[in-house]
Specification:
- It is a single chain.
- Helices cover about 50% and strands about 15% of the residues.
- It contains 18 helices and eight strands.
- It has an eight-stranded parallel β-sheet.
- α6 packs parallel to α8.
- The chain is globular and about 50 Å long.
- The N terminus and C terminus are likely disordered.
- Bound molecules: zinc ion.
């Protein structure tokens, strides 16, 4: 059953659990089309890009014991029945991150991988509380990440924004203290977000913290409507001033909310492989992304925690294309939505838009895929 769930999560010939670059592009023109498409990623947790290989390397470097003997054994544990299962493993893995250099190495590995995957702009999340609670200095976390972002822009032209997320289940006081600590590094941050266990921690709890952050000029996003009900999406908009909703797939349960999101052009950062892995939806064929798109919602595709969920950004595009039979125009709309939803200045946005337009005009039209879905 578990093996079957995994099979269904990534498709018959989809990427293996480590995702990314092992599906031979030469066999399927759609894979090449999606990978070469210039993409913007808006929902990506840096800690969720920690591949087992790097986890073992950092564990060795820092003398941190792991309960898995091998990379394969660790990957074998990546079968989750719900968000809580995943989070336990995620926090365990994050314990190998201890020094400024560790955060640099983690971020650099993601950025280079993303660039090779066609990502041209990335807005990345980090969870400082996961690290400060273990005695790691906030400065080391933010400095290591920032240094990697700066280097990636200089070396690759990959631009980025850094968004600091509060862990809902760590409570309001901890979030407020984290924000206070972050103010020393205000210039390195673009926004704040809210993640981790959703149910039981409605957005309203964090209204004061978000008001303080917005008063300091930080943008606001929040995870809502993943495992939590549509009311949490409303709460994120009304109480937190969220400009984008991370996930938001359960918004569809509330037609009035859908109308509001469409009218306000509120972007939703949907993470298809994550949703299947965490059983938010039973399989990719029943993922609501296509319905969301056809409802007029500003939907984007993202990879969330790709090291744990079986695929990076192209893998997510490919999975929804295959599972839902999306056409070429819909794939380009998803990519264009992310350009419009990015927290960039208009110059950068125009450049990202132009690159995508050129690609749409010049990229070879994918022939019919083996599964029968053409683009
Ligand atoms: Zn997330």
């Amino acid at each position: 059953m578990i093996g079957e769930m995994r099979e269904r999560a990534t498709g018959d010939s989809g990427p293996p659990p480590h995702g990314g670059d092992s599906e031979p592009a030469g066999h399927d023109p759609l894979v090449a089309f999606v990978r070469a498409m210039p993409k913007v990623e808006l929902h990506l947790h840096l800690e969720g890009t920690l591949e087992p290989e790097l986890m073992f390397e950092l564990a060795r470097r820092n003398g941190v014991p792991l309960r898995f003997a091998t990379v394969e054994e660790m990957r074998g544990a990546y079968d989750f029945s719900a968000l809580g299962d995943f989070l336990r493993l995620y926090y365990e893995g994050a314990a190998v991150l201890q020094t400024e250099r560790d955060f640099y190495d983690l971020s650099r590995a993601y950025l280079h991988r993303a660039y090779a995957d066609g990502v041209r702009h990335a807005e990345v999340f980090f969870d400082p509380q996961t690290h400060t609670a273990r005695g790691v200095a906030f400065r080391d976390v933010v400095s290591g990440i920032h240094r990697a972002l700066v280097d990636a822009e200089a070396e690759l032209g990959l631009t980025s924004r850094l968004i600091m997320c509060f862990l809902r289940d760590a409570g309001v006081e901890s979030a407020a203290a984290t924000l206070t600590e972050a103010m020393e590094y205000r210039d390195l941050l673009t926004g704040v977000g809210l993640d981790s266990t959703e149910v039981g921690y409605p957005p309203e709890l964090f209204a004061g913290v978000f008001a303080t952050a917005r008063a300091a000029g930080l943008r606001a996003v929040a995870h809502a409507g993943e495992e939590g009900p549509p009311e949490y999406v409303r709460g994120a908009l009304d109480a937190l001033g969220a400009e984008r909703i991370d996930h938001g797939v359960r918004s569809l349960e509330d037609p009035a909310l859908v109308r509001r999101l469409v009218r306000g052009r509120v972007p939703l950062t949907v993470c298809p492989l994550s949703n299947v892995r965490l059983k938010v939806v039973p399989d990719m064929e029943s993922h609501p992304l296509r319905m969301m798109l056809e409802s007029g919602l500003v939907v984007t595709v993202n990879s969330d925690d790709p090291a744990y969920f079986g695929g990076y950004l192209s893998d997510n595009f490919r999975a929804v294309q295959r599972g839902l039979g999306l056409d070429r125009a819909q794939l380009l709309t998803l990519a264009a939505n992310a350009v419009e939803a990015a927290f960039v200045d208009e110059g950068r946005r125009a450049r990202l838009r132009a690159d995508l337009d050129v690609y749409a005009e010049t990229a070879p039209l994918g022939a019919a895929a083996p599964g029968g879905h053409g683009v």
